[in-house]
Design a protein that fits this description.
290 residues; mainly alpha; disordered N terminus; TPR-like_helical_dom_sf; Flp pilus assembly protein TadD, contains TPR repeats
């Protein structure tokens, strides 16, 4: 189905084309046809990079790149589509081609670093980011710098990069969530809790952050659910998370109570919680702790 803006743009060009034909000028007709094609491709490219199926986008940009091997925008589109299609290794190869082309930008290098991180090439990502001048201060650049610093356990650098990234976007929920998870992974559960709460002030619907917040609290022995917006199904899932965390900390009885609460709260049959509770009743808490 065509995008509404796309149809409107084409309609305008069609009117222009009709007028040109009325004047019977081959040159004007050719120019109008070129305009139609340009609008068609521009809008289709935007659609392919956003709402289109990622694999369809890969096919589209592969064909466009093959037809126009010197067009850097076609290569960019292919690289971005490969990332969306969860093919980061292939995306890195295409980004390398982009960077070698005239017109390559620092944003292209940052995008390649992200693809390298997605393909678990942390050293490659670091090397790529090192080629980006410090004057290129963007949210994505510092977000990736923070992740690389995390991978190297350079906590002070990571905290600095996370803080900078958060200040460069109007939607910092994701970066605060990542920063909180970083704190949690290094054993600072209290610090993680504060960051997850901060993330939820910007996006109170993000369930991943809610779950991380419950994990951070449970790591401190705080098993009651935080006062946040949640649906009944989410409440059941969060009770389940708290229950498993309690068992892993050795608070088995508390964990059993929380799992039972999760089963009772869920509006539908909660298979995972039910299996976990049965395992505990049968004395298999060691398996859950693993």
């Amino acid at each position: 189905m065509r995008h509404p803006i796309f149809l409107a743009a084409l309609a305008g060009c069609a009117m222009t084309l009709s007028g040109c034909m009325g004047n019977n000028s081959d040159a004007e007709v050719a120019r109008a046809m070129k305009s139609v094609n340009a609008v068609d491709e521009t809008n289709l490219t935007d659609i392919m990079l956003t709402v289109a199926d990622p694999n369809e986008a890969v096919t589209y940009f592969t064909r466009l790149s093959n037809d126009h091997p010197d067009r850097i925008d076609a290569k960019r589109g292919l690289a971005k589509s490969l990332v969306r299609a969860q093919k980061p290794v292939q995306a890195v190869k295409v980004w390398q081609e982009v960077i070698a082309m005239p017109g390559a930008t620092n944003d292209d290098r940052v995008s390649m670093a992200e693809a390298q991180i997605r393909s678990n090439d942390w050293s490659g990502a670091k090397a790529t980011l090192d080629t980006v001048p410090p004057t290129h201060e963007t949210y994505d650049r510092y977000r990736l710098e923070a992740m690389v610093a995390d991978s190297e356990k350079k906590w002070k650098k990571a905290d600095s990069f996370y803080e900078t990234a958060a200040g460069l976007t109007t939607k910092p929920a994701g970066i605060y969530n990542n920063w909180g998870f970083s704190k949690l992974s290094r054993g600072d559960a209290a610090g993680a809790e504060k960051l997850f709460k901060e993330a939820l002030t910007y996006d109170p619907t993000r369930f991943t952050t809610k779950n991380n917040l419950v994990l951070a609290r449970a790591s401190q022995g705080k098993y009651d659910l935080p006062v946040i917006d949640m649906t009944q199904t989410e409440r059941a899932q969060l009770l389940y998370t708290a229950g498993l965390a309690a068992v892993k900390r050795g608070d088995v009885n508390i964990g059993k109570t929380l799992l039972q609460d999760a089963i009772d709260t869920n509006p539908q049959y909660f298979a995972e919680a039910d299996r976990a509770l049965k395992a505990l009743d049968q004395g298999s808490s060691s398996a859950l702790k693993g």
